[in-house]
Amino acid sequence: MEGRLRLQLCLAMCVQVLVVGTVVVAGAGARPPAMYVFGSSIVDVGNNNYLPGAAVARANRPYNGIDFPGSIPTGRFSNGYNTADYVAKNMGFVLSPPAYLSLAPNSTSSPLVLAALSSGVNYASGGAGILDSTNAGSTIPLSKQLEYFNATKAKMVAAVGAGAVSSLLSRSIFLVNIGNNDFYVFAAAELARNRSAEEQRSDAAALYASLLSNYSATITELYAMGARKLAIMNVWQLGCVPAVRVLSPTGACSGLLNQLAGGFNGALGSLLASLAPKLPGLAYSLADSFGFTQDVLADPAVAGFTDIAGACCGSGRLGGEADCAPNSTLCADRDRHVFWDRAHPSQRMAFLAAQAFYDGPAKYTSPINFMQLVQSR
Ligand SMILES: *[C@@H]1O[C@H](CO)[C@@H](O)[C@H](O)[C@H]1NC(C)=O
Ligand SMILES: *[C@@H]1O[C@H](CO)[C@@H](O)[C@H](O)[C@H]1NC(C)=O
Ligand SMILES: *[C@@H]1O[C@H](CO)[C@@H](O)[C@H](O)[C@H]1NC(C)=O
Ligand SMILES: *[C@@H]1O[C@H](CO)[C@@H](O)[C@H](O)[C@H]1NC(C)=O
Ligand SMILES: *[C@@H]1O[C@H](CO)[C@@H](O)[C@H](O)[C@H]1NC(C)=O
């Protein structure tokens, strides 16, 4: 009873601090009130640890987390922090907000509401796609992530009222990084079906149409639920990850996967440019993960990388044949690898990408960078 009362008191005070804080320090340097994260394994900070089933992609064992404070596996597909953490750090947070499923999502005075009001919540899930059908049953699809956010919002409203929540959400960052898994699943299916080049082109056109219509619906729904600042990362060069390179006798990138991602990214840019003006008050920053990866792979020495093909933690050729596990081979210098495991960036790569998107070269973000997004009104 006493614990509950304290929690409610804290809740009231947290919100007070939050509101006062914004009035007093609205200038540069103030962090956004909260950040809400949606997407796949590149930004998952532990949601998949809570999903049942052997088919779920998990990073809850060593050597994952070997460079995280305390050297613990957290569910991040990284040797340390991941891209969500570094985007958050750049914006003034300590790290990514906590994984939704790690917060008991039931009562109004729960850790969920406290987190949602004070720093945000991360809904991302390894294996998730834009389409519900992508890795169905072993992930939290994007549509479900939005439902979880909607449920979170309802609890926030119950705790502090609709006006305060709407004000908080309008100043918060909504980070979205998704699409890689839709393309992995598509490419594998095309291969299995032995489709001709022409058939692949028409299949890809159909895939784009459904991905873009869902992405558009996702953005419109987030807006309807109160989001006004979207930080969106496009699909990186997924044809170059070790798990894909290992399929080539020479360890080359898959041109097909990179073309699929590149074509999609172009269409995503057009979608955002045409959709945003129809949603009054919406600001967005589209980060070019694809271009950033391409530049790093083309000139890795500039960023201090010496290995751009193999996984730091994995097994088999290029470390690309199995996930990172306690019996994996571990590389000697993790900061010199672009890829941590067979499908994910190393902590160093995540750090550099987030920095580029926050206030790096203008070519990596459009129409504004993440820093300008934070400062926009
Ligand atoms: C939340 O409530 C639902 C249904 O009432 C229950 O199934 C679930 O286990 C509860 N979750 C937690 C974390 O308490
Ligand atoms: C969010 O929840 C409200 C009820 O609280 C419901 O009316 C609305 O349709 C939901 N929106 C989405 C996108 O799920
Ligand atoms: C794939 O299709 C081509 C013709 O388009 C055919 O020559 C080839 O044998 C097929 N391969 C398999 C594995 O079915
Ligand atoms: C995405 O598309 C599928 C059909 O392809 C549909 O069932 C689903 O509701 C869509 N999701 C959103 C968020 O529009
Ligand atoms: C690691 O252990 C798993 C069983 O947990 C086994 O299937 C796999 O072959 C082992 N890999 C190596 C490289 O020894």
Automatic annotation (TrEMBL):
InterPro entries in the record: GDSL, GDSL_Est/Lipase, SGNH_hydro_sf, SGNH_plant_lipase-like
Signal sequence region: 1-21
KW Kinase (keyword) present: no
Pfam family, one: Lipase_GDSL
Gene Ontology molecular function: hydrolase activity
GO biological process, one term: lipid catabolic process
The keyword Lipid metabolism belongs to this UniProt entry's keyword annotation: yes
This protein's UniProt keywords: Hydrolase, Lipid degradation, Lipid metabolism, Signal
Protein family per UniProt: Belongs to the 'GDSL' lipolytic enzyme family.
This protein's name: GDSL esterase/lipase
Source species of the chain: Urochloa decumbens
